[in-house]
Amino acid sequence: MSARQPQRLAVVSAGLSVPSSTRLLADRLTEAVRAELAGAGREVDVQVVELRDLAADIAKNFASGFPSPDLADAIESVTSADGLIAVTPVFTASYSGLFKSFFDVIDNDALTGKPVLAAATGGTARHSLALEHALRPLFAYLRAVVVPTAVYAASEDWGGHGDPLTDTLPTRIARAGRELAALMRDLPGGAARADDGTDVVPFAQQLAALRPE
Asked: What Gene3D superfamilies does the database record attribute to this sequence (predicted)?
């Protein structure tokens, strides 16, 4: 019986400032997923891709058609992961150009079937619909499997109570983390790598268990 291998989680952050609320949200989502998987006895290998550091490489890729070694490593981290957290700031009511450009240089079939948690940050809650009209269609086009809960964090969400109609930010982060972890645990590839005789619970059954009574 082989040892259980850690599951791979890629985290893409398109924040531009340092420190960045986009990276902060990415880190909190990562910890939520890690905690859920740890509760199921699964270790997680996290690879963070900071797009700010790859901006010039992404632009050169469009001109040359070839990724730099650093960009190639980032693409490999994302495409080979068992799950993906993708977080972007909202610019002009949509994802940032840097965020879109990164996913434009990835092969259209590379994310097929991959569990994805989509999230975004912005200065006002009015931009929260960017998750549904921009991010979710992007990953649907790439044939990824996007978890039901997409997380948007406006400026007032940090350290506040948020909108009582949509729950607080920590509540939404925890719920999204549970959903992504459930998808990752249910991956046939992950089960095959583990090879430990553990029964795989169907994803529909796992989601049903997450619904409130």
From this structure: 3.40.50.360
DSSP string of 116-137? EEEEEEESSGGGTTHIIIIIHH
User: Tokens 């799950």 map to which residue?
Assistant: 83
- Which residues form the domain of 22? 7-210
1 within a domain of the structure (yes/no): no
Averaged pLDDT, 17-21? 88
What's the pLDDT tens digit per position in 139-171? Answer: 999 999 999 999 999 988 876 555 555 568 999
Domain count, the chain: 1
- What is the CATH classification number for the domain harbouring 78? 3.40.50.360
Q: Which two tokens stand for residue 54?
A: 């790859």
Q: What are phi and psi of 181, to 5 degrees?
A: -60, -40
- Please state the pTM of the whole predicted model: 0.84
Is residue 118 domain-resident? yes
